[in-house]
Amino acid sequence: MKEYDVLIIGGGVTGAGTARDCALRGLKTLLVERHDIATGASGRNHGLLHSGARYAVNDPESANECIVENMILRKVASHCVEPTGGLFISLPEDGLDYQKKFIECCAKAGIKAEAIDPKEALRLEPSINPDIIGAVKVPDASVDPFRLTAANVLDAQLHGADVLTGWEVVDFIKETVTVLGVKLRNIYTGEVKSVLSHYTVNAAGIWGAGIAEMAGAHIGMLPAKGSLLVFGHRVADMVVNRCRKPANADILVPGDVVSVIGTTSDKVPFDQCDDMRVTKEEVELLLREGCKLVPSLATTRIIRAYAGVRPLVASDDDPSGRNVSRGIVLLDHSKRDGIFGFITITGGKLTSYRLMAEKTTDLLCSKLGVERTCQTAVLPLPGSEKEKRKPSHSVVVEAAFGRQGTRVAEMDFSGKGSELVCECEQVSRAEIAYAVKELNVKTLDDLRRRTRVGMGTCQSTFCLRKAAAVLAEELGTPDKADALLKDFIQERWKGIMPVCWGDQLREAEHMRKEYGK
Amino acid sequence: MKYDVIIAGGDSADVKIAMAALQAGKSCCLVAEGRLSGEGGRNAFAKAGGVLLLGDRISSVEWAEDGSVAAVHTANLDDERLVASVYVLAAGRFFTRGLVSDMQGISEPVFGTDVQFEPDRSKWCVEDFFAPQPFESFGVITDEDRHPLKNGKAIVNLYAAGEILAGGVDNIEEICRRIISA
C-alpha cells in the first residue's frame, strides 16, 4: 500500500517549494527533513533575491531565470521580499570595460540595468565607496530565506501535505530497480519507521549526493563553501555589488536590522559539509574586500560569521567552483541510471527555487498521469495575499505583520500575547505562540528561523532567558526552558567565535557573564 | 584635588576596594563609566563620604620621572589634576572597557600597562560556550606586589585588582589589605 504519491527529501527552499507545488496539484505529499527547514544552504546565503545581473555576463540562462523569478516572487512572496533595489559599482581599479559588457548582457537577459552618475548613486546609497567611477542600478532585492521556506511548508500543509522534521533518511526501500520508499530515523528519539511512496524526490542540496548514493545512483557534486559576515547595523539600504567578474566578498545585502557581506568560494570535502566553520583568513578577506564596497564596514561591529555549501553539480574541474553553471539540474534516474521511482532536483539557487519546484512537479505529474498545471507563479504564499488591512497602532503587531504577513490574523495579541520577548527584532509572545502552533517549532533555533528571535544586534544576550521560558511554556514543557537555552546559545556561539574582537568581544563577555555559569 | 586613593573603576568589585579605603580613614575617589561598576554599592560609598565620578573615565595620565603615576585627568574634569598616594586599576575586562581589543591584539587603555594575551586570535575562544574562555584569563601583568608592569617595569604606586588581572585571580581582599596598610 503506497501511502504517498510523492515523498520529498530535504526541507530546504527547493524541497519546501516542491512540496507546495505537489500539494497544490493534488498529489498526496510528504516532506521529510533531517533537522529543521532551511538549515542547509537555503538558510546560509546572502538572503539576496538576484535580479540575475550578477550572472548576466557568464551565464545568460541563469540570469534570465533569475529576473523572471525575481518578478514573480515580489508578487507571490511579498512578505518575504524587501524591494531594496541594487547597485553594481565600479571602483577605479575595476575600470569601466566590464560595466559596458555588463549592461549589454543584462539587456539581452531582460534585466533592466541603468547606468547612473556616480554622484546619483552616492545620493541613493550614501554608504558606498565615494571613489566609485561608475554605477548601474538593477532590480536586486533582499529576501528572508527562512520566512520563504516556512511559508512554502505552511502552504503545503494547508493543502494536505504532511511534514516531518527531525527525521533522517537512513535507507531506501527498493524492489530490484524501483525505489518504493524510505526508512526514517527520528534524530531525537531514535525511533525508526518506513514510508512508502510512488515517487521519491531527492532535494537534499549538497547532501543529495549521499542520498543518491544510498539509492544506487552517482551524482558528481562539488561542495563549494561560501562564508559570510553579519554586521550589527543596516549599513546600506540597497544591495551593493561590485561590477566586475564575480569574485570574493563583492555583494553586501541589507536584511531586516543587519547587513551581510559575502561570499568566499572554496572547494571543501564532503565530510565537512555538516560542520562548516569560518576561518580567520576568510573573516579577514571578507572584511578587507567588503570595506572597498562600503568603507564604514571597517568600523561596524561584526556580530556573526557563517558559511553554507553550494550544491553545485560538477561540470568541469574548476577548483573554486565559481565558474560552474548555477543552472537547474533535474535528474530522472529511471532514464539516467535505470532506477525507477526516484528523481533528483539540484543546482539552481534561492531565487530560482520556485522554477525548480515547478519543473520537478511537472515531471512528477507527467509520470503519475496528473493533468494539473502549476499555479505557484500566480498564487500568493500564505502571508502575501493582497488584503486590505488597517495598520495597527501596536509595534509588535506591525513587526509580526512584517514577518508573517497576513498570517498575523491568526495571532492572539490579547492579554499576555502582546508581551515583547525579543527587543532587537520586536518578537511578541503571540508570534511565538503562532509559530509553535502552525510552523513546526521544536527548539529555539527553529523559532529563530521562523521569527528572527535572537538574530538582531544583541544575538539573544538580552532576551534569551525570556525567549526560552516563553517557548518552553508554549510547547507545554515549562521545565525544558534551561535545556532550550543551552542548546541555542551553544549554536549562536559557533558563529560568534570567528569574529570575537572589539565590541563583539565585549558582547561575548557579557553573554558569558549572563549565561556561562 | 588630592586623595589617598583613586580607583579607575568598572569591575563589579571596585566599590569593595573603595569602601575598604574609606573605612580605613582614607579619602577615596572612584571613577567609573557605570555599567557593571559597583553593583549597587555605589550609593553607600557616596554616603560614606567617597567621591564618585560616575559616567566618567580617566582620559589621561601624568607620569613621574621614576615611572610612577603623578596625576590623572578624567574626560569630564579634563583641566583638573587628580592626585593620589595610591592608584588602583580595577576597570574590569572587555565589557567595561578595562581591556580593549582589535583584530591585532589586546591592550589596557588607561595606563597602557603590559597585557598578557594569546597572539593567535583564533584561540581567544573555545568551542564549548559553557567552558572557561581563554579571553577571560587575558589581562594586566603585575609583579608580586600586584603593581602592573609597563614596558616590563613595575608602576610602584598603582595596583591592579579584580578581573583585569591576567590569569583570572581574585585578589580583591588582598588589594583592600594593601591599601589599608599603605
Model description:
The complex is a heterodimer of chains A (517) and B (182). Chain A folds into three domains: 3-41 and 146-220 and 321-368, FAD/NAD(P)-binding domain (3-Layer(bba) Sandwich), CATH 3.50.50.60; 81-142 and 222-308, 2-Layer Sandwich (D-Amino Acid Oxidase, Chain A, domain 2), CATH 3.30.9; 395-515, no CATH class. Chain A is built from 15 helices and 22 strands. Chain A has helices at 13-24, 60-76, 97-109, 118-124, 145-158, 208-215, 280-293, 333-336, 353-368, 395-404, 429-438, 444-451, 464-474, 481-496, 502-515, and strands at residues 4-9, 29-33, 48-49, 81-82, 86-90, 114-116, 134-138, 141-143, 162-165, 167-175, 178-186, 192-202, 221-231, 239-242, 251-255, 258-262, 266-267, 302-313, 328-332, 342-347, 420-422, 427-428. In chain A, strands 5, 6, 7, 13, 14, 15, 16, 17 and 18 form a nine-stranded mixed β-sheet that branches. In chain A, strands 1, 2, 9, 10, 11, 12, 19 and 20 form an eight-stranded mixed β-sheet that branches. In chain A, helix 2 (60-76) crosses helix 3 (97-109). Chain B has 182 residues and is an alpha/beta fold. Chain B has one domain (2-181): FAD/NAD(P)-binding domain (3-Layer(bba) Sandwich), CATH 3.50.50.60. Chain B contains three helices and 13 strands. Chain B has helices at residues 14-23, 42-47, 172-180, and strands at residues 2-8, 28-32, 51-54, 58-63, 69-74, 83-89, 100-101, 106-107, 115-116, 139-140, 149-150, 153-154, 158-160. Chain B has a five-stranded parallel β-sheet. In chain B, strand 2 (28-32), helix 2 and strand 3 (51-54) form a beta-alpha-beta unit. The model of chain B has no long low-confidence stretch (mean pLDDT 94). Chains A and B meet through helix 14 and helix 15 of A and strand 7 of B.
